[in-house]
Structures are given as structure tokens and as C-alpha cells.
Amino acid sequence: MSLPAVFSIQQLTSDDEALMRSLLGMFGKAFGEAQAYCGNQPAAGYLRQLLASDTFIALAALKNGYELRKFEQERSEIYIYDLAVAAEHRREGIATALIRKLQQLAAARAAYVIFVQADVGDAAAIALYSKLGVREDVFHFDIPVQDGKKAR
After folding, report:
1. What span, in angstroms and rounded, lies between the C-alpha atoms of 65 and 21?
2. Three-state SS for 133?
3. What is the pLDDT of residues 8-48, one digit of tens each?
4. Which residues on neighbouring strands pair with residue 9, listed in sequence order?
5. Do the beta carbons of residue 25 and residue 38 sit within 8 Å?
6. pLDDT tens digits along 83-138
7. Which H or E element spans position 100?
8. What is the rounded CA–CA span in Å between residue 29 and residue 87?
9. HSE on the CB side for 97, CA within 13 Å?
10. Domain locations in the chain?
């Protein structure tokens, strides 16, 4: 799929702190969780270090994942932690283009697979990921860090 000229995909670097903060705001709005994404954002140094890391991948579609090294084999898997497109820009191929770019980056890193989770009932995400990959039925568990306190 060739990208329409109306947007480009950019991999964020340590110089893109402001763009990363914009992404956090967009995630908060798209997921209806503004407090989770914007209420306690990391310090500038933390974001710069994260964006400079070779184990963290942040892509932005400008309208202008995360790599997990395996221990059982010498390979890695790329995890899409969050993927969202602002409501006013959906149905333009942006999410697919982001994943296609991530596939290129994953291939360059010799990653084994890219994986992502979708919430039950999120029909749009499930349709997108079903079009691009193979569905696995798994369970996700949040295990509390402190005894007796629910994670969230």
C-alpha cells in the first residue's frame, strides 16, 4: 500500500519530546483516558532517554512498540503497546501505514513477530489486526505489585 501524500510516518527520536507529549494527549483523547495519559507525564529526561533507547519504538503519523528480547531463543518480538488515530483522521489508512512501517523496522531488526492486544468489543481494532495478522485467543492478567491492591 502506498501512502497518500497527506501524511507521513515518522519514528520519534530523543529530539521529539514535544511530539511524544502530543501523542500522549492524542492517546488520552482517543482512548477516553486523558488522566492516564496526561495526568502524570514523565519528566523530559525520562522521555528523551526512552526515545533514544534501542528497545523502544514510537511512530507517529503526521498529517503531515516496543521490542521484547526473548530468552528462549536469540530473537525478539515487537509489541504494539498503544495504537490510535485521532477520530477526525480515521479511515484514511493511517493505522495500517503505521503497522506497515513497523513491519519494515521489525524486519531490519530481525524480529520474529509483531504482536498487539485488542479489547473485546473493539471491532475496529479487531478488524484491522485480523486483516494484517493471525488472531490468537489468549487471556490478559493484571497482577498487582503490592499484595491485595488491584492493578490499574
Report:
1. 16
2. coil
3. 788 999 999 988 998 898 889 888 999 999 999 999 999 99
4. 61
5. yes
6. 888 888 888 999 999 999 999 999 998 889 999 999 899 999 999 999 999 999 88
7. helix 94-108
8. 9
9. 23
10. 8-132
> Cα–Cα distance between 17 and 60 in angstroms, integer?
12
Residue 8 and residue 22 in contact, taking contact as beta carbons nearer than 8 Å: no
Global pTM exceeds 0.70 = no
In angstroms, the CA 70 to CA 76 distance is: 5
The confidence band for 64, taking pLDDT boundaries of 50, 70 and 90, is very low
Contacts 24+ apart (CB under 8 A), 118-127: 124/90, 125/83
3-state secondary structure of 112: coil
Q: What is the CA radius of gyration of the chain?
A: 16
Provide the CATH topology of domain 8-132: Aminopeptidase (3.40.630)
* Full DSSP string of 12-78: --TT-HHHHHHHHHHHHHHHT-HHHHHTTPPPHHHHHHHHH-TT---EEEE----EEE-SSSS-EEE
How is residue 111 written as a grid cell? 524480529
